[in-house]
Amino acid sequence: MNALRKEAIWFYALISPWLIGFLVFVLGPMIASFIISLTKWDLLTPAKFVGFKNYEKALRLDPLFWKSLKVTVVYSVFSVPLGLIFSLALALLLNQAAWGMRLFRTIFYMPAVVSGVSVMVLWMWIFNPQIGLLNTVLGYFGIAGPGWIFDPNWAMPSLVIMSLWSIGGGMIIWLAGLKGISPTLYEAANLDGANAWQKFRGVTVPMLTPTIFFNLVMGIVGALQTFGQAYVMTKGGPMNSTLFFNYYLFQNAFENFSMGYASALAWFLFVIILALTLVVVKSSDAWVYYEGERK
C-alpha cells in the first residue's frame, strides 16, 4: 500500500501543472462565463442578476442571433467539405514517389503557418474589385469580375474560397494517413484486377476513415468559431452577410459592452459545437474503421 500511495502521490505531483492550468485557465473561466451569462453587466457598473433572460433574448427577441447563426452554418456547410475534398486531392497528388515531392509538400504547407492577419490583408487586396488580382486576371479574358467581399451576394462565397488557402494543414494529416496504409492491400487489389477508382473506393477511403473522422471534427469546430475574416476584412458586412456568430459575440462583449449577453452567446456556441461533435463521434462506430479492430 505504501508503494501504491507513493505512486499516486508522484502521479498527481507530475500532472499538477496541467491540473492547475486546466482549473485556472479552462474550468474556472467557463464557470465564471456561465455566472456572467445570468447577469446584466456592462463592465463598468456592478453586475445585476437577471436569470436566464439573456438566453431568452437570444432565442426570442434578437434577429441578429439567428442571422449570425445562419451565416456561420452556411459557411461551415460549404467550407468544411470543400476543405476536406481539396486537401485530400492535394495529399493524393503529393503522395507519389517522384522527384521534388518534399519541396512541393513544403510549398503547399507553408500557407497554413502564415500569420492569419497578414493572410487576410493579402486576400483583401486579391478581392479588391478595382485593382485586385482576381478581377485583373478575369479582365484579361473579358470577364467583369464581381465585387467579392464588397458585394452581399459574393461576400460569403469569397470567404469560402479564401478558406481553401490553408488546406495545407489538412494535407499533412491526409499524407500521414496515406503513409499508414499497408502496400499489401493495394497489391491484393491489383491481383483482383481492381482499377484506380476501385482501389481508391475499396482500399484508400476505408483505411482513411480515422483521418476523415479527425479532419471532420476539427473542421467543424474551426469553422463554427470563424472570427478573423469578419473582424479584419468585412466587419460583418456588407448587410450582415458575413456576420459570423463569433464576431457578433465579440461585438456584444467589447463594442456594446453587454458582457452578460455575450457570455450567453458563448454558451450557445459551446452547446452547438458540443452537440455536433457528439453526433460525429457517436456516428463514427458505423463508418470509421480501425485496422486490427474486430466488430
Automatic annotation (TrEMBL):
Cell compartments where the protein resides: Cell membrane
Keywords, ordered alphabetically: Cell membrane, Membrane, Transmembrane, Transmembrane helix, Transport
Bilayer-spanning residue ranges: 9-36, 73-94, 106-126, 159-177, 212-232, 259-281
Top-level division of the source organism's lineage: Bacteria
Gene3D superfamilies in alphabetical order: MetI-like (1.10.3720.10)
ABC transmembrane type-1 domain: residues covered: 69-280
Keyword Phosphoprotein on entry: no
UniProt-listed InterPro entries: ABC_transporter_permease, MetI-like, MetI-like_sf
Cross-referenced PROSITE patterns: ABC_TM1 (PS50928)
Protein's membrane topology: Multi-pass membrane protein
One of the Pfam families matching this protein, by short name: BPD_transp_1
Family membership: Belongs to the binding-protein-dependent transport system permease family.
Name this polypeptide is given: ABC transporter permease subunit
Organism listed in the record: Paenibacillus glycinis
Species lineage: Bacteria, Bacillati, Bacillota, Bacilli, Bacillales
